[in-house]
Design a protein that fits this description.
The chain is an alpha+beta fold. It is built from 3 helices and 10 strands. The longest helix has 23 residues. Pfam families: OmpA.
Length: 192
């Protein structure tokens, strides 16, 4: 990702605004704060605002990068595995889903679509149902295990309707089309 110019607002633990700054063109910033705990809000036009807690220790320099996410940004995951012909998530997928949950926790207003996709083996109708069940299984995992608000997650099955590889000729081609995508569709409770 290229560096962005961001507006940053720092707050104390009571929610009082301490200072506002704008980062440099290269994305770097510097702010002098007394020792303590602060909340920082980072905003860039057309990106989802970020919030973080910053702990300032006396005499130490803090370095904090912010990964700004755009609406309509798609993240594709092929390492979310399911039992064959089922919507049961395999345990080796949990670390990937746990990292997605962390991103959602760090971006509490983000609303995402969880898109389930299949390869072309099986009937279209069957693949549609299977992809929907798998998208719902991912949503349920994020809600049940990580406490993500279900209103922020929209499960949608696409079946075989949006292949990445067409036509599928090898097992690798089939595998590329079996995936789960996360599409950032907006923010909840944030006026545009």
């Amino acid at each position: 990702m290229k560096p962005l110019v961001a507006d940053m607002v720092f707050y104390d633990t009571l929610g009082n605004e301490i200072t506002k700054i704008t980062s440099n063109k290269d994305g770097t910033y510097s702010v002098k704060l007394d020792q303590g705990v602060y909340r920082v809000k980072v905003a860039v036009p057309r990106y989802i605002p970020q919030e973080a807690i910053v702990v300032v220790e006396g005499g130490k320099k803090n370095v904090r990068d912010f990964a700004m996410l755009k609406e309509k940004m798609v993240f594709t995951f092929r390492n979310i595995y399911f039992d064959f012909n089922k919507a049961t998530i395999k345990p080796e997928s949990y670390p990937v889903l746990d990292s997605i949950a962390q991103i959602l926790k760090e971006n509490p207003t983000m609303v995402v679509e969880i898109g389930g996709h299949t390869d072309t083996r099986g009937s279209r109708k069957y693949n549609q149902k299977l992809s929907q069940k798998r998208a719902e299984a991912v949503k349920n995992y994020l809600v049940r295990v990580h406490g993500i608000d279900p209103s922020r997650l929209i499960a949608k099955g696409y079946g075989e309707s949006r292949p990445l590889v067409k036509p599928e000729r090898t097992e690798a081609d089939y595998a590329k089309n079996r995936r789960v995508e996360f599409l950032i569709i907006g923010q909840r409770g944030v006026e545009k």
